[in-house]
Design goal:
The protein is α+β, with helices and mostly antiparallel strands and 71 residues long. 14% of the residues lie in helices and 35% in strands. The chain contains one helix and five strands, in the order βαββββ.
Length: 71
Amino acid sequence: TTTGEWKEIKCKSMTFPESLIPAFVKTYLDENFPNVKIEKIEKYKKYVEVELANNVEIKFNYEGKVIEFDN
């Protein structure tokens, strides 16, 4: 964006930079998918969507709650 904030990051061939992962997403993934690589994160106005290497897609609201889970 023009403010320098990211909206989408894809990282299929490298390890995802941890500093770019929202804390609530990292906590959830560490507890539920500890060894699964993040391939993509997208920020939207009301939620964050994460795509994992195992084809799971998870949407979180900005309070850190899972609002959609697709596997």
